[in-house]
Amino acid sequence: MHAYFLGAEKIQRSKSCPPRLWGVVMLLCAVGCASSAPPKAANSAPTYDADFATLYSDLFRPELFGVASANTMAQDGLLSERIARAEGVVPTRVVTINREVRAGRRSYSVVVEQIGPELVGRSLSQQLSLVIPERSPTFAWLEGAGPNWVGTRLLLMFRVFHDGPHFFGTHDTPEVRGAIQDALQRQAAARKPPPT
Questions:
Q1: Along the 196 residues of the chain, how does pLDDT read in single tens digits?
Q2: Which of 16, 74, 105, 138 sits in a 20 to 30 Å window from 177, CA-based?
């Protein structure tokens, strides 16, 4: 008797078993073990291209830093599309702010957590870390605000891409929520079939 090992199982080969048949048995065992391995999950997240960068530009609106804006959220021509293509629109609170330098490039990491029911799409299952690069206007505003910005409440429109989450953040007020609801109603009306 000759003994062989496959994984943790001991397989014995009889002298009476022809070599060719034994080779077929071993091949079938190997194929069966390989096919039982779980398949790798495919990453279905989209690529962060120029169109998405226009919608989710990793920007917090200036009102969140006490800076006046030239237009309101109701006047934002991209609001409807931001809502339609977002994974979620959720009320959040800033938990931590960290200033980072990687490969000579400065950025801020802002961690937020959800503090109320989502307005659109899915909720955040856990805290979300957002990266604000130095080229973003938000970087300069965070430089000025510093740690005092921790605790700020805002509405976050977000979507997760191949390279991580990207977002657009705005102040959480009745006016902004009203503008979002108006946009949702227009979208629902556009989806209704015409009367017959």
A1: 444 333 333 334 444 545 554 454 444 444 444 333 333 334 688 999 999 999 999 999 999 999 988 888 888 999 999 999 999 999 999 999 999 998 899 999 999 999 999 999 999 999 999 999 999 999 999 999 999 999 999 999 999 999 999 999 999 999 999 999 999 999 888 887 777 6
A2: 138
Number of domains in the chain: 2
How far is residue 187's CA from residue 83's CA, in Å, rounded to a whole number? 10
3-state secondary structure (DSSP) of residue 160: strand
169 and 72 in a single domain? The answer is yes
74 in the same domain as 27: no
DSSP secondary structure letters along 85-107 = H-SEEEEEEEEEEEEEEETTEEE
Q: What are the residues facing 153 on neighbouring strands?
A: 93
* Same structural domain, 92 and 69: yes
Q: For residue 167, what are the contacts with CB-CB under 8 A and spacing of at least 6?
A: 56, 58, 130, 156, 157, 158, 159
Cα–Cα dist 132/114, whole Å: 19
